[in-house]
Amino acid sequence: MPSAVAVGLLLALNLYGIPAVTVPCGFSQSGLPIGLTFAGPHFSEGRILALARTFEQTTDWHKRRPALSPTMTVPPIA
What we know:
By secondary structure, the protein is α+β, with helices and mostly antiparallel strands. It contains two helices and two strands; from the N terminus they run αββα. Strand 1 (20-27) and strand 2 (33-39) form a beta hairpin. The protein is flat and about 45 Å long.
């Protein structure tokens, strides 16, 4: 589950209109997906998307899926 700081940061980026994109970058110890957010100055959408695309082409995190099982604990929804 995202921390309050991470949620606050993403909220601030959204409120101020700062371009940002989040890409998968791994899994937590409990098996939940983790995202990496790239952000930049206003009007840098093309550069941010190019960076995210390069990251995804260089890694294979976007192709991996979490291991799901019926016994997996589900975190509470806040």
